[in-house]
Write a structure and sequence with these properties.
CBS-domain, Alpha-Beta Plaits, 3 domains, eight-stranded mixed barrel, 28 helices, 21 strands, disordered C terminus
């Protein structure tokens, strides 16, 4: 349609004011679901213009209202329409209504005449007023009485689209809402996004502290719903439950009910990549290495340095500063060795201390991350091992550190990080593995714990080197990840060539077999052509005897834990039984062995094996 042909049509379309006066606005309702029992606790009332008209959508309606400067009037008319329609349909539960801050100010400023809106056909205690993000609130102190007026009328107060635009933590703290609706940005794909997961978990902690109830908006699939359910979020809303409709949904669809009541628990997304780069305990590593030590000014003499070292025999070095910034470092041993030479004290004692100083010391900023510090360990400049280094605070001298403390700090943090995420595969480490097993057991969820090991990996590693061995481990991790349903199955890397899968998929056996087959075929490409033709490699066993080793293959030992058996097990016992099953699988031609968890509960004592010994056995 040309612009000229469209113009009369647009001109003939009634304005928003006319639609309000003629009562041509229509209400539609979207369910809000309580995850406890899967019941519909209420509906959000939304407004639409005449069906088929250019003003049917809310975006078009409010855009036109803005042009006509009647947005607040439209919001009041929308609320009245929703209330009347809601009552006429005899809908159960609460009714959620949207208002901007400006419209709420006008509503409460109008006194009893405006608040009579809530004295209509439904009890005001069934109304929840949602503060939308359309307009900012510049003076929260003056807006608080608006909220109190609404509460006095019997309505509850909610923040809508929290986390975006004008919905800030400042609003939450000062207005103390009864309900907070989390914006769909944080909810969409939360099952696969660790940062969104952590953001919602932070909101959840604050909601518990403030007494607010959370509603997750924008739920569109079962995976996101189950993650939110298992996090402990109270309620949800989204297309997965139902779209806005003139006829409100009274009962959830079967798919939604089944997702809420699903027996399996969610696999929470893990921010494993960032874990290895963060300092343990949230404290900057440099601050732990800091040695408080005096510094000398640039104009100090060598005699001043000698006097300082003699007065502080434990001081390994001294920094030279100018205007609080370090410019050099004098190592104690190097200085004393040189100064002890004949006549050096007489010749150099009164000369500037920079003569025997390192004018390019290693500087470490106090806020530096572990990975930034670790680059020093791999650099060509290794003087810090002997001289130590200078620690700064925004460029100003703060103190000293030793090479030994740097190596220890980097090592400790990386060991700590590896407990959470394997540094090679970035898969969850031992702590997340144990945590997920505990969650499975506490929920009495049925699962299969599969301990994965690579046969003949050590001879391959010895023959081809650690770099090629790491490539095989990364390939194994990829194969195992492909075998898992990320919403049901948890994959962790225990260490070395040991992995653990906690299967909740019903097709776990087929997935395990496929992983073995895929890995065994793919591992051949890591061998040289001659070794592939020979069927393996020659090497030495653990006793130094010449031995021929076949190709690297995958073995999986599995422990079945039936639903309702969680109380009979601990995470250590599950890991230990899986490790024993793995030992059997290494002797099995198929590479897969399954044992029953309940039938094997007494297996470890009977074999004289402690859980720790079983877990470390290979």
């Amino acid at each position: 349609m040309s612009a000229s042909a469209r113009a009369p049509f647009l001109h003939a379309t009634p304005g928003v004011g006319a639609l309000i006066a003629q009562r041509q606005l229509r209400a539609v309702f979207q369910p809000i679901v309580d995850f406890e029992g899967g019941v519909i606790l209420g509906y959000e009332g939304l407004i639409r213009g005449p069906a088929g008209s250019p003003l049917e959508t809310p975006a078009a309606l409010f855009a036109r209202a803005g042009d006509e400067q009647c947005t607040a009037a439209l919001e009041r008319a929308a609320a009245r329409t929703c209330i009347e329609t809601f009552a006429g349909l005899d809908c159960p539960g609460k009714l959620f209504l949207n208002f901007s801050a400006d419209a709420l100010r006008q509503l409460t400023a109008a006194g009893d005449a405006a608040l009579a809106l809530f004295d209509g056909p439904i009890d005001p205690t069934r109304v929840v007023i949602e503060l939308t993000e359309q307009s900012a609130i510049h003076d929260l102190r003056n807006f608080s009485p608006v909220v109190e007026t609404l509460r006095a009328a019997g309505a509850q107060f909610a923040l809508d689209d929290y986390g975006t635009a004008n919905a800030s933590l400042n609003l939450w703290v000062q207005l103390q809402p009864d309900v907070v609706k989390i914006d769909r940005f944080f909810i969409h794909d939360i099952a696969n996004d660790a940062l969104k997961f952590e953001a919602v978990r932070a909101m959840q902690h604050f909601a518990q502290a403030s007494g607010a109830r959370l509603v997750a908006e924008g739920i569109e699939n079962a995976a996101d719903l189950i993650v939110l359910r298992d996090m402990g979020i109270d309620c949800g809303q989204g297309f997965f439950f139902g779209r806005p409709n003139v006829e409100p949904l009274r009962v959830l669809a079967r798919e939604a009910r089944e997702a809420i009541r699903a027996d399996h628990i969610a696999v929470f997304p893990e921010a494993t990549r960032s874990a290895a780069t963060q300092p343990a305990g949230g404290t900057a590593p440099a601050s732990k290495m800091l040695v408080r030590a005096p510094a000398l000014p640039r104009e100090a003499t060598n005699n001043d340095v000698l006097q300082l070292f003699n007065g502080q025999p434990d001081l390994h070095a001294v920094a030279v500063v100018e205007d609080e910034a370090p410019v050099a470092l004098i190592n104690r041993r190097a200085f004393m060795d040189r100064y002890a030479l004949p006549y050096h004290r007489e010749l150099f004692g009164k000369k500037a201390c920079l003569q025997f100083a390192n004018a390019q010391p290693v500087l470490i900023e106090q806020s530096m991350t572990v990975e930034q510090m670790a680059t020093l360990l791999a650099s060509d400049d290794q003087r810090y091992l002997a001289d130590g280094f200078v620690i700064t605070d925004n460029g100003r001298y703060a103190g000293l550190g030793t090479g030994e403390s740097l190596v220890r700090a980097v090592t400790e943090v990386r060991i700590q990080a590896a407990r959470y995420a394997n540094p090679l595969t970035f898969l969850p480490g031992n702590i997340p593995i144990s945590s997920h097993i505990e969650r499975l057991l506490s929920h009495d969820a049925g699962f299969h714990a599969c301990y994965v090991d690579l046969n003949q990996f050590k001879p391959f590693n010895d023959q081809y080197g650690y770099w090629q061995g790491d490539e095989v481990l990364k390939f194994a991790a990829t194969v195992l990840a492909d075998a898992c349903d990320p919403t049901r199955d948890f994959l962790g890397h225990v260490g070395g060539d040991d992995f653990l899968i906690l299967f909740q998929s019903e097709t776990w056996r087929e997935r395990a077999r496929q992983a073995i087959e895929t890995f065994n075929e793919g591992a051949l490409r890591f061998y040289a052509p001659g070794d592939r033709l020979a069927g393996g490699i020659h090497g030495e066993d653990r006793h130094g005897n010449a031995t021929f080793f076949t190709f690297v293959t995958m073995a999986i030992g599995c422990v079945r834990v039936a639903p309702g058996e969680g109380a009979q097990h601990s995470s250590d016992a599950i890991a230990s039984l899986a490790a024993l099953a793995k030992r059997r699988a290494k002797q099995e031609a198929t590479g897969l062995v399954v044992i029953d968890g309940s039938a094997s509960a007494n297996l470890l004592p009977a074999l004289g094996t402690t859980p720790g010994e079983a877990a470390s056995a290979s």
